[in-house]
Amino acid sequence: MVKLKHLSGDGFEHFNEDGKFEVKSKANEIKEFNKLSEAKKYYDSLNEEKAIWDITLIPELIDCQVYWNSYSYLIRDTRSNIYKIGKSDNPKRRYDVLKTANPFIELIGVNQINEKDLHKKYSKYRYTGEWFEFPDKIINEVLKLFKPIDFL
Q: What is the pTM (predicted TM-score) of this model?
């Protein structure tokens, strides 16, 4: 599993890409970078499962446009138990906007899996638009794809 790690500098915290970054491949090969954009380019080029969970809990990353282009997010409507798979560069802000229209939703988690790929994979469970009705035997599989964010 490939991992991108922030070692030092202001690369995440201050929306500055300078710092020290490390990308570790499945074969434990480690490459170091001084620019976040260079580290991400190499990280994205590796054809391996990505350890995206290691860094999605850093609140500053939600707004760091240099690093994340967008997240896929999973929202559940607690009344109907249907799930929305959406995409946003700032899922917390998107959740806050959606919650004003529907106070019965909860943000389950985020990931960097392409939203369209998720829609395609689960198309037979589509309720309407971006909303899905997952049977009990599938929901655990779906939930494992999304990392909870505990800074809301």
A: 0.57
